[in-house]
Amino acid sequence: MSSFRGVDYLLIDSLFSEQELLVRQTARQFVDGRLLPVIRDCFRDGRFPSELIAEMGQLGFFGANLEGYGCAGMSNVEYGLVMQELERGDSGLRSFVSVQGALVMYPILIYGSDAQKERWLPRLQAGAALGCFGLTEPGFGSNPAGMKTTALRDGSGWVLNGEKTWITSGTIADVAVVWARTEDGIRGFLVEKGTPGFTASDIHGKLSMRASVTSSLAFQDCRAPADSMLPGAKGLKGPLACLSQARFGIGWGVLGAAMDCYETARRYSILRKQFDDRPIASHQLVQEKLAWMITEITKAQLLAVHAGRLKDLGKLEPAHISMLKRNNVAIALECARLSRDLLGANGITDEYPIMRHMCNLETVKTYEGTDHIHALVIGERVTGVAAYK
Fold it and tell me: Which domains does the chain have, with CATH numbers?
């Protein structure tokens, strides 16, 4: 198939500046030229394309919307467009970039000491160091307040005990941002690879996110120095603020997966002939599915653009991000399912990207706030009544 030209039914490109379109084109060329040639085999083999890390660092993808320490300082709309293109390639790669920037670099920048920032941020931005984010535990996913991992003072340092799971990049990370319960409340710690008592192991048997590293972290009398704590983060507000940054990127990213599925199905329906040698695109039921997809993608694009503009103005709230993440993931997953249906049996083969996107999106729907949890966040916003318990 020819290079991706984008999906723009309602002239949404007119809402972007020349700089924003240039950023998108740079990311688009990277995906087309570097990621797409390898992603099918990576997904098939369960391999993360680590050979692309340095190039993504050079392109400024890591911490793209952060300022200083070598970061690109992109607007949030520009950052969103990068996430869109990366997830058009694969959710696993977008997830890796999201974790590196929103869940590792962001908390170090916002909550870290000057020494922590100077040590880690330039290397993380360049891809010379990798990070992971340890919040979810085996018994506590949607309820992070129930975490069992502890950090106790011991002399001049800390002793961590506990376990984290479903951690992107856990076994390849040089540093883990770990959230633990202390006598002073929930605090964040930078735990380096190789610290005694800290181990990471990969989760195997995944049928989704196969081109992404997913791990478990274990802390058994793990001794971390006093300066490993993030001084500016106290309570759940710290990790939740990080998740808001990542969820914003998801809301944009899944648009790329939806676009790729839609465009694959649209092209296929024009080329595929059935019944008197007519393209299946001439059938009413096929056109109805394509009409639904392009309408929902267009609405999701408008939601993402407006959320990005609000974020650049400092007006985007966590409840707004919940709507962005929940809506856009849901329509992307339905686009994948409808596209698979339009391709018939061909839709289940990895000759086409649709089944890979569908499997990945099942994970994206669950992580960083399930569909149900985001529904409750929106419900609390419009009623003033929390319904989490």
Answer: 12-126 (1.10.540.10), 131-228 (2.40.110.10), 237-383 (1.20.140.10)
